Amino acid sequence: MDAYDRSVLDLRAKDRDEMTMHVALLRAVNVGGRGKVGMADLRQLGVDLGFSEVKTFLQSGNLVFSSDPRPEAELELQLERAARDRLSLTTDVIVRTAKGWAAALARNPFPKEARNDPAHLVTVFLKGTPASGAGRRLQESVRGPERMRVVGPHAYIVYPEGIARSRLTLPVIERRLGFRGTGRNWNTVTKLAAIASGAAAHT
């Protein structure tokens, strides 16, 4: 191998090292006949945007990909514009790096519920961090059995009786916390963490 070949390999290795894995969540897609998008189309969108290692999970708008390091807000805007222009889909997108996603798992204030009833534990990923006390005030306003905590840009909510009939809906949460967001149950959160870490591969 000559010096040129070694330099090319070094550059390729450097490029791989500088790539960052991300998880992107699309808000309210394929729900009740609204916001329809195929996951194959979503994966192709990621490829067309120059992302690599593009994967999806379930049909609810969960995209995992690798890209050059960029601010999450920049990637959110890029994906929102591309979804609108190429898929005729107008929706919010929330992006976290794989490290940020792992941090959200680690900061879960309901570890017992995560172990025993993960389907009824929901994490709402927000576009920003609510003001101090906003989560406490929202919890105080809840009249049902739900329990919630806000930690950074994430709201963790336990729905003991399920989410379908709860009055603590996503629009209520967004309005009271001041940011748009989207929720995933703990089973999905942990599975996406595995995909983003390379421990699993789903398409």
Helix proportion: 40-55%
Q: Uncertain runs with pLDDT below 50, 5 residues or more?
A: 3-16, 199-203
CATH C-level label of the largest domain: Alpha Beta
Straight-line N-to-C gap: 37 Å
> Averaging pLDDT over every residue, what do you get?
89
* CATH architecture label of the largest domain: 2-Layer Sandwich
By CATH's scheme, which homologous superfamily of the largest domain applies? Answer: SP0830-like domains
Class from helix and strand fractions: alpha+beta
Q: Fill in the CATH topology of the largest domain.
A: Alpha-Beta Plaits
Strand order of the largest sheet: 2-3-1-4
Radius of gyration over alpha carbons? 18 Å
Total number of distinct structural domains: 2
**Which strand-content bin applies to the residues?**
15-25%
SS elements, strand count: 8
Largest sheet: 4 strands, antiparallel
What best-fitting shape do the alpha-carbon axes yield? Answer: globular
